[in-house]
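Memo to structure team: turn this sequence into structure tokens by end of day. - J.P.
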Amino acid sequence: MAIHVVPQLADNFAYLVSDDASRQCAAVDCAEADKVLAAAEGLGLSLVAVLTTHWHPDHSGGNEDIVRRLAGLRVYGARAEGGRIPALTNPVEDGDRIRVGSLEARVIGIPAHTNGHVAYYFASLGAVFTGDTLFVGGCGRVFEGGAATMLESLGKLAALPDDTRVYCGHEYTEKNLRFALTLEPGNQALKAKYERVREMRAQGRWTVPSTIGEEKLTNPFLRTASPELMATLKRQDPALGSDPVAIFARAREMKDRF
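Reply from structure team:
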């Protein structure tokens, strides 16, 4: 059983999740069919499914092309996306289970970036694919929901075991952590991670995966209860209370302008 990173577009990630026994695999978020198909072929894998986290074209734009080229391919995605996922064959909802060979994924509904955004959690692999909801060091913009909805969605992911590996949709980590340090300059775990990430990027290496445990220590959008983070925000807005939704909303607004 393995997870293979397939770079897409300028800074997107697709992933191949493979079952060793059957040599079957699923692609998470196909933006460019050629690259996904070439990766599967090069690894000697049979692609049987596409797992789409949300409808945005940089995560689903390759669906129609890949379905044309692979008869019988299953395309999973949220029913709550309202038909916006191209070539969808298998609509899913929160709590549904998907099988790829001997592997099983649980669908976790995490709306707010889009109304139907989902994550795919493979407990046997200790891995979750979070699309554009949870990034390494950050979170997605709140396009189709409110701050409370996004905070609830992030809470579902934070509730996974700390050693769960986080595979997100973009290579945004260095900038995310640079922003995080403006909110928690005294966070030693964050400082150390930022230095590691700078070194990795200088070497041309990807920063995925992270883990849920690391994110809880370093990601400001999972740290709305941090005294230092709250103090930083209240210095800028003395009227800001301690409500986690208000703290999150203020931090997200600042990140939007960063």
